Amino acid sequence: MSTLKQTLSKKIDEWRPRTTKLLKEHGTEKISDVTIAQAIGGMRGVKCLVTDISYLDPIEGIRFRGYTIPEVLEKLPRPPGVEAPYVEGFIYLLLTGDIPSDSEVKEVADEFNKRKTVPQYVFDVLNAMPDDSHPMVMFSAAILSMQKESEFAAAYKSGISKMVYWDSTYEDSLNLLAKLPEIGAYIYRKKYKNGDIIPSDPNLDWGGNFAHMMGIDKPYDDLSRLYFILHSDHESGNVSAHTGHLVGSALSDVYYATSAMINGLAGPLHGLANEMVLRWIQDVIENMGGKVPSTEEMKKFVWDTLNSGQVIPGYGHAVLRKTDPRYTAQRDFCLKYLPDDPIFKYVSLLYDVVPDILREHGKAKNPWPNVDAQSGVIQWFYGVREYDFYTVLFGIGRSIGVLSNLIWDRALGYAIERPKSLTTAMLEDIVAGAK
Ligand code: HAX
């Protein structure tokens, strides 16, 4: 058994009594009340999910297993001479809560190498799809097509104890994670590079191999590692993470759950916002005939968008109330590698004008940029200009968090989700009764 699986198994055994004790001895203690506004308004702020993989503070931003983004980037092992750590080490951290050693990272990389061959039928499915299929549809379909490989589904049919659900879920998760960079790069090269597929290189790490298969030179490998880590997890309540958890809670295997979470990520208010940001900026560039707009001109574009009833993509958040640290980490990357890029100048100009305008507009609770405001510009700079592909990149990263959560969901025996709904008339009765 690998060190990762052994460590995880030990941690699960240690953790289970905590969950059992909370349920048995404190199960009736309250952590949340729900208002009518929350029931109608997307359950904002209702505390009714549990995860130990990451926690999102409205002001500070995300912590992965207790570590801030700068701490994660600093503490995890990295390839020589680069800034972003190995994704393999980050996966080890999310699953176990421990910072791995170099040799533990290498073991995870070897595990992925053993598991990364994508069955030919997946490529056949992708090749059979219409040329104008959205890359997110292709990504979701490719993942779903592999459901028949599920070790959990086979084990469940054969009759296994709840105590070992996590084991085959772990195997499924590693099998799927190993293949995602291959599938993502295949979709990109098939759709936008005349099907000129670049074979995988077994000597490269997860992020480095993805950059290689995309056909993009350094430092795109470093960017890929950074990008996948930043997009991995944002606690459990966002649409993609929650969808993965919800579908998995019915004991659907990770192929069903991950494909479903990709479908949620594809919404423009969620992951697709990274595509929308670039689309919006391209519109501005077209309108300006390529010239970088003045501050006043940019303000006008922002107001025109708001006045036409649209949102400013890349701004606002359901939980955060400050600039997203994932935005800041990507901005730091831009300042280092592409400070003079014209599109980065647009993005910077937006940062100067949008928060004040959103405050004046008076609707958004958070006027600050989120992760999606900055991510497309970097991809554009390195030649990935097909912005409908950007959310696939997000999806590869998000799978890391969703799959880590699914393994722990199974280990701790989290129940099938089934919140209760009321009718509008019941709400009206409650209001009348309160009066
Ligand atoms: N531009 C214009 N209006 C905005 C806005 C923005 N960027 N952000 C919020 N608002 C509006 C909302 O549409 C809402 O309007 P109505 O009252 O008319 O419905 C009002 O402000 C209150 O919204 P909120 O409470 O501040 O925000 P929500 O929790 O409802 O929604 C969203 C959070 C992220 C969906 C929202 O801020 C938004 O639509 N942002 C733009 C799209 C975007 O960038 N999405 C990506 C978010 C990060 C992410 O998940 N990445 O994957």
Key terms:
435 residues; mainly alpha; Citrate Synthase, domain 1; Cytochrome p450-Terp, domain 2; 2 domains; two-stranded antiparallel sheet; 20 helices; 60% helix; 2% strand; binds N-hydroxyamidocarboxymethyldethia coenzyme *A
The topology string of helices and strands comes to: HHEEHHHHHHHHHHHHHHHHHH
Average of the residue pLDDT scores: 96
Given this structure, which CATH class of the largest domain is correct?
A: Mainly Alpha
> Into how many domains do the coordinates divide?
2
> Number of helical runs?
20
The rounded Rg comes to 22 Å
Say which CATH homologous superfamily of the largest domain is assigned: Citrate Synthase, domain 1
**What's the total count of β strands?**
2
Helix content: 55-70%
Biggest sheet architecture: 2 strands, antiparallel
Listed once per kind, the bound small molecules are:
N-hydroxyamidocarboxymethyldethia coenzyme *A
Named at the architecture level, the CATH assignment of the largest domain is Orthogonal Bundle
Regions with pLDDT < 50 over 5+ consecutive residues? Answer: none
Spatial gap, N to C terminus: 63 Å
- CATH topology of the largest domain, by name, is Citrate Synthase, domain 1
The spatial strand order of the largest sheet comes to 1-2
Q: Proportion of β residues?
A: under 5%
What general form does the structure show?
Answer: globular
Give me a quick take on this structure.
The protein is mainly alpha-helical. It has helices at residues 3-26, 36-40, 69-75, 87-96, 102-115, 120-128, 135-145, 151-158, 165-192, 206-214, 220-230, 239-249, 254-265, 273-287, 295-307, 325-337, 342-361, 372-381, 390-411, 424-434, and strands at 54-57, 61-64. The chain has two domains: 1-28 and 49-268 and 389-435, Citrate Synthase, domain 1; 273-381, Cytochrome P450-Terp, domain 2 (Cytochrome p450-Terp, domain 2, Orthogonal Bundle), CATH 1.10.230.
